[in-house]
Design goal:
Elements (H helix, E strand, L loop, with lengths): L2 E20 L8 E20 L2 H116 L1 H19 L5 H49 L14 E6 L5 E6 L9 H10 L3 E2 L2 H18 L5 H13 L6 E2 L1
Antiparallel strand pairs: 1-2, 3-4, 5-6
């Protein structure tokens, strides 16, 4: 699109010069020079016509080329994105397929290896089972042979022992044999009246033996009763010596536990634990008294005594046999460290 631009400006032009002159001959005639100078101003207007049609045509042509190039770039970008997406999917599928092929191959190899091992183990187990059955049969046969042999040995020993016992206690056995024959003779013949006499004597003997056994048991019972009464008397004496009479003024001692802790923020906490069967004292007074005391480590004797009572208390409170109770009991016992505990 053509356009015109106009510019107006006043331009000043400086001028100067010398002019020679001469006068005609006269009284005052003669010649000379005159110098002049000055500035002349003129308004100048310039009109500029700019022809932009070729430039506009080139711009339009360039615009069309740029549009074509933009379309080509967009198409190329879309094609590149599609190609990248397609190639990425192809590469991903190839990688996944290769990965799964590798895994399947590894699993197949492991399955084949395990199958071969399993087959070999099964064959070995079958052979061992057969050997076990053979061993069982052999052991049954050996057991029967050994048992028969030992039964024969024990039978011979029993018969030999019976003969030796008979020889050792031969008078007794002879007496038993004669008494049995006498019993048969007295019960199977006409001398039945002798049974009454023998019955009376046997009854008297059994009564005396029973009375003797009863006396022996009574004596043992009396001895046990005396022992029990003696122990009870000693226990009562011990209790009476340990107890305090109400009319006697005495001092009762109660255990007090003072604990000083420090948390992760280096804040120190102080707590006092008192027994319930005595009047409670002010915790602040106890803490101040404890801080003024001299603290020392436990002696070996006190440590052993406290440890014994502590273990008994822990075992009574955590007497379960399950895994949790046993772990809690073991941790509590491990936490007891007399080197870190001090007393007044």
């Amino acid at each position: 699109m053509s356009y015109r631009r106009s510019f107006n400006k006043q331009i000043g032009v400086h001028y100067s010069g010398t002019v020679s002159y001469s006068y005609p001959a006269s009284q005052n005639g003669g010649s000379g020079t005159v110098t002049y100078s000055g500035t002349a101003y003129e308004d100048v207007q310039v009109n500029i016509d700019v022809e932009t049609t070729p430039f506009d045509n080139s711009v339009a042509h360039c615009n069309k080329s740029v549009n074509v190039l933009t379309g080509a770039v967009v198409a190329t970008e879309a094609a590149q994105i599609a190609s990248i997406d397609h190639n990425a999917k192809k590469i991903g599928s190839t990688i996944v397929e290769g990965f799964f092929k590798t895994i399947r191959s590894e699993i197949s190899q492991q399955i084949a290896e395990l199958s071969s091992k399993l087959d070999s183990h099964l064959a070995h187990l079958h052979s061992m089972a057969k050997r076990c059955v053979e061993k069982q049969k052999q052991m049954e046969s050996d057991y029967n042979d050994i048992s028969n042999r030992y039964l024969k040995i024990f039978s011979d020993l029993n018969s030999e022992l019976s003969n030796r016992i008979y020889e050792l206690d031969k008078p007794t056995f002879v007496f038993k044999k004669q008494s049995d024959s006498q019993h048969k003779r007295t019960s199977e013949n006409d001398l039945v009246s002798t049974v009454a006499v023998f019955g009376a004597e046997s009854g008297d003997l059994q009564a005396r033996i029973s009375a003797s056994i009863a006396k022996k048991r009574a004596l043992d019972t009396i001895g046990k009763a005396n022992t029990f009464l003696l122990k009870q008397k000693r226990l009562n004496n011990t209790i009476n010596q340990s107890m305090l009479k109400e009319s006697v003024a005495a001092v009762l001692y109660s255990p007090v536990c003072f604990i000083e802790t420090q948390n992760e923020k280096s804040q120190i906490g102080k707590n006092v634990y008192q027994s319930d069967y005595l009047p409670q004292m002010q915790a602040s007074e106890l803490i101040s008294d404890f801080q003024e005391k001299n603290w020392n480590n436990f002696s070996k004797e006190n440590s052993s005594q406290i440890g014994r009572y502590f273990n008994a208390e822990v075992n009574s409170r955590y007497s379960g046999a399950d895994t949790h109770t046993s772990r809690v009991r073991e941790n509590i016992v491990k936490m007891l460290n007399f080197n870190q505990i001090k007393s007044v």
